[in-house]
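---------- Forwarded message ----------

FYI, see the Reverse transcriptase zinc-binding domain-containing protein record below. Original note from H. follows.
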Amino acid sequence: MSLLESLPQTCQTVEIIATLWALQHAPREQNLTIRSSKKSVRTTIMVRLGAMEDRGWIGIPDKKPLQALVAELRARGGTMSFLPPDQKEDRHILTGRSEAAILAKTDCDMLPKEIRFDIDPTLRVLGAKLATLTQATAYAGIKERRVAVRRKATDNNINLIKTATQHTFHRLPTTPQIWKSIRNRDFSRQVKKFLWKSTHSAHRIGKFWKHIPDCKHRATCQFCQELEDLEHILLKCRRPGQAQIWASAKDLWLRKYGTIA
C-alpha cells in the first residue's frame, strides 16, 4: 500500500498535498503566495506547528505530508504567504475545493504521484519535548511505533473487496475507506463485528476446524461436500432455500432504497 493510499481521505489532506507539490515544483528562491480555502491548513502551518513538533507529531493524522511540507518551507529562501482565496478573483479555487472534496471521498488515483515525502535530516525535528510530554501522549507514541501484524487472509479479503467494488460500482476504495465503512454508525454492533471478523477470516468455520482433532468434519459442508468457508455459506451452498433467502434480501433492499447501486 502506497503512502498516498494510506493517508486520510479528506479535503485537508488533498490541500496539504497540493501545497507540497506546488513547493516542490517552484524555484526555492521564488516568493510564493499560497491561497488555501481550508482555514485549518493555514492554522496548522502558522499557529499549531510548534505544538505539533513539541508532541513529536504523535496522533497527527496528516503528519507525513505535513512534515514534508514543513521541511520544504524551511528549505526555501523566498518568502511564503498563506492567504484565504478572494471570493471574486479566486472562484476557481473555491470550485477546485469542491472537486477536491469529491476526489477525497472517492479515490486517490488523481493525486500526483511524483510527490516526494522524504525529508532532509537537517530539517527534521525528531522526538517529543519532555517538558510538554504527557503520559497519554507517550503511550499513544508507543502504540504508533508498534508494527502491525499483517495477515495474509486479511490482505486477500481486502483485495477481493476492492476488486468487487470496482467491478460493481466502478470505483476503487482505499484500504482505510474499507475499514472505516465497516464502522459505519448505521450498522449495529453485531453487524460491525460480523463484517470485521469476515474481513479477517476470523469466523469459526471452514479451515478453522481442520487442525482440531475430532472436529475436522465441521470444516466441510455436509450437503455439498465442499469447504464450508464464508463464501460457500453465503453464495455457493446448494441447500434448499439459499436462492429464496437472497431473493427476499434483494426485495427488501429495493423496497427501502429503490436501487442496488
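H. also flagged this: Residues 150-166+178-202 form one domain.
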